[in-house]
Amino acid sequence: LPLNLGNKEITWMMLEAGAETDVVNSVGRTAAQMAAFVGQHDCVTVINNFFPRERLDYYTKPQGLDKEPKLPVKLAGPLHKIITTTNMHPVKIVLLVKENPLLAEVEALQKCYRVLDLICEKCMKQRDMNEVLAMKMHYISCIFQKCITFLKEREDKLDGFIKSLLKGRDKDGFPVYQEKLIRESIRKFPYCEATLLQQLVRSIAPVEL
């Protein structure tokens, strides 16, 4: 995967055409590492957020002894859009859920977050472990689970969730609920040995709300 002069669109097209992201060059660096080295951070973001649609479509077919697929076909497109988004702000993710009537239902979100948890597990257990993608899947799964809570318990549903995420505390406007949600998702990441998790905990632990 050449650097293509930092062009995000070309990077995305090459990935969709099947370019391998874990292949290394003559100095042992992947495309993402080379792009980061020369400051092409948009390309790094595209590479790190890429998730082939066929890897998600796998869950739309019954596997093994299952009679039903884990993910209904109609949810694959909307879920893939969220998986591949590069804007990880929790409000953005909730808005993507809210704008799609197929997704914004308890049963649909339950199916989706369970599939995300399976993908997270696969990312951690495959030979070429992908901690970044695993953490992203886990994080989106946590937001989906919180969406379910609001859909079940609050009359204002996802609007209430968005308001809670945006509401700042009185003294300085700091969005405490949002911060707690993000910290909680990191704390719940099930693979304690992950280097990325340990880096995040080291960065966040000393910082008070």
UniProtKB/TrEMBL annotation:
UniProt xrefs under InterPro entries: Ankyrin-MYND_dom_contain_2, Ankyrin_rpt-contain_sf
Q: What is this protein called?
A: ANKY2 protein
What species does this protein belong to?
Answer: Casuarius casuarius (Southern cassowary)
Q: Which gene encodes it?
A: Ankmy2
